[in-house]
Amino acid sequence: MAQEQSTSTTTTVPDLNSPPFSRLFVLCGKQVTVGALEKFFSPYGTVEQCHIVYDQSTGQSKGIGFVKFQKTSQAARALKEADGKHIEPELKPIKVEIASSTIESKPLDCLRLKVKCAAELDADAVKAEFGKISAVNSVQLVPDKKSPGNNVAYLTFESFLDAALAFETAKPEHKAKFAKIKPRKVSLESVQPQEARSFFRPVTRRRSSTLLPPTKLTVLCSSTLTQNQIWRLFDIIPGLMNCSISHDGGSISSATVTYNNTQSAKYAREKLHKFEYPIGERIVVRDGSE
């Protein structure tokens, strides 16, 4: 089992859940130290704590780090700008993700806010108010059951940074908080093209499965990886519907990853094929039909 060793920049241990999504998971390299990790991420904001994960049996770094920021927007900016760069003395690009504090939390949850608003404000007015600071994709209004006469607005933003800035600058009366995006159960045979551009036209089961655009991927990976780790890696690409992994007792495991559209599956294959996860061990990503 791997253990986390750390150096904190403060005398107290920060609450990893406060503010939400302020902690990052970093695939770096085995030569990266806590000091190097902190120095690299400090320009993006106040770093409250850094961790490097070490193997308990060997004492060697696993090439995995965690960085906790003081503000959500600082973590969002670091995620946007630091991903793909490298930390000396390593030359390989790093991979940065949101470090979910709970298994139920998914990366896309950071794109949606729940805010309270007056009933006289329609969706356009709410969008205009928050659009002064951030790029808002959509607004959904529902009656506030706890406060009759008011509404609750669910805002989906263009990016994590947009949502973070809106969260931090919202008026106190809005009581803004991040809202989980509930996974939509989709049957590929029942979805119509007009419902979402990302879905392909359904076909009947009588037609050859080779006519379906590939949405299912097969992933060969280290047997040390868990299903949750594979889920978190592939969930950085929107559209993930399902992930299952099977262990046969050997050093290599096989996972099946399914997206709700062919574009996401293709992008995942292009970006994550031969990606080192964990560092030093490459995963193989291919179409499920191969």
Automatic annotation (TrEMBL):
This is RRM domain-containing protein. PROSITE patterns: RRM (PS50102). Keywords: RNA-binding. Residues 9-101 form the RRM domain. It comes from Anopheles merus. It holds the Pfam family RRM_1. InterPro entries: Nucleotide-bd_a/b_plait_sf, RBD_domain_sf, RRM_dom, SLIRP/GR-RBP-like. One of its GO terms (molecular function) is RNA binding.
